[in-house]
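Side project, low priority. Logging it here so it doesn't get lost.
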Amino acid sequence: MSAGRIVIDLFTTLDGVAQAPGGPEEDPSDGFPFGGWQAPLIDEAVGAGVDEAMRDMDGLLLGRRTYDIFAGYWPHHTTGPEGAIGQLFNRIPKYVATRDPGYPLEWEGSSRIGDNLAAEIAELRTCHRQVNVIGSVDFVQTLLAERLYDELRMWVYPIVLGTGKKVFPTGAAPANLRLTTAPVVSDRGAVLLRYAPEPGIPQTGTMGE
């Protein structure tokens, strides 16, 4: 089997906020007032994009906060409109990034990584076709900085919140990325951007020279 892929899936605002798109209680840390900002903007194109992202998924890699949210939700949502997603998430292996060896992992099929992230992700590539990282903004920043991913998929929505956790906060590691496919635009103005990491860091120069 060829090496598996690590795919980061995020929903962000135009100013890069990726905190709590799904609901008010998803991540209210630091008094975030806009939990659930994505809900009014979902349309068929975004839904189709989400389905496509999960088509080859056979593993989930999550930060602790997102893992706790998923573990408390998806085992109880295996029927109805969300049933297909719930069944997939419950069936495939789940990996939670934490250095705490005693962290409770009650969701069936869950295990811990985090002692040696680069080596552990290399191991995941050998036993999975595609491992998706969903949400997990703090953890994603580590993956981006260390280039431990193959694709960054972002649905960018036409709203500005001005507060919240950002995908690329101040101090993010400089990096080059390559757009891999043409953007997809939804009826409500969300844009799907798909990037792969590139070597090196951004270069500088003077315009016109």
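Brief comment: The mean pLDDT is 93.
Revisit when time allows.
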